[in-house]
Amino acid sequence: MSEPVKVAVVYYSSTGSTHALAEAVAEGAEKAGAEVRLLRVAELAPAEAIASNEAWQKHHEATQDVPVATPADMEWADAVVFGTPTRFGNVASQLKQFLDTLGGLWAQGKLADKVYSGFVSTATPHGGRESTLLALYNSVHHFGGVLVTPGYTDPIQFATGTPYGPSHHDAQGAIPISDETRESARYTGRRVTQVAARLKAGRAALDA
């Protein structure tokens, strides 16, 4: 019996929306048969900044038990799904800093040929959800990764309209994540796992 696909869900979340999406992605991957690691990246903001925002402080304290991602997790994974809030239409510095630590693995070719995808949350309706995911995917291209977005490959994607990856507009915490968006995130986890499983099986057949 072949070993399960290994999926790392690597995210940054300040007040909880991206964390909730990460949990849904992980759930979808697990239900598709993957071995999943749910991992946050290290916080870079000073304690004073976190304490100045009650929601940020509360979420920071509530997620201390979530393991912090390391380059070793990237090497372990067959597939990686990154999550980030948008910052001025771009990837949050906390996730970007983690990506910038991966030069050693990149130089050895150990980030290539893995499956990658992403998800995002924003404060405003048109606050850069698509631009943030497209910016995130620049790193995937440099890795030599296999980009697997949800596209419009499932009916839930026509309900959410986010072919680049699951996304949520939270209006500074005022809007909860919809059932459709959670299902889109679960679907992304399933799709990433299924495509990675096919690639893994194909490699095993070629190596046999």
Structure overview:
This protein has 208 residues and is of the alpha/beta class. It has one domain: Flavodoxin domain (Rossmann fold). The protein contains nine helices and seven strands. It has helices spanning 17-31, 47-51, 54-62, 71-76, 93-100, 103-107, 129-143, 155-160, 179-207; strands spanning 6-11, 35-40, 79-87, 90-91, 115-122, 146-147, 167-169. Strands 1, 2, 3, 4, 5, 6 and 7 form a seven-stranded mixed β-sheet that branches. α1 links the parallel β1 (6-11) and β2 (35-40). α1 (17-31) crosses α9. 46% of the residues are buried. The mean pLDDT is 94. This is NAD(P)H dehydrogenase (Quinone). Belongs to the WrbA family. InterPro entries: Flavodoxin/NO_synth (IPR008254), Flavodoxin_CS (IPR001226), Flavoprotein-like_sf (IPR029039), Flavoprotein_WrbA-like (IPR010089), FMN_Rdtase-like_dom (IPR005025). Residues 7-192 form the Flavodoxin-like domain. It comes from Streptoalloteichus tenebrarius (strain ATCC 17920 / DSM 40477 / JCM 4838 / CBS 697.72 / NBRC 16177 / NCIMB 11028 / NRRL B-12390 / A12253. 1 / ISP 5477) (Streptomyces tenebrarius).
Short note summarizing the structure:
Residues 7-192 form the Flavodoxin-like domain. This protein has 208 residues and is α/β, with parallel strands linked by helices. The chain has helices spanning 17-31, 47-51, 54-62, 71-76, 93-100, 103-107, 129-143, 155-160, 179-207, and strands spanning 6-11, 35-40, 79-87, 90-91, 115-122, 146-147, 167-169.
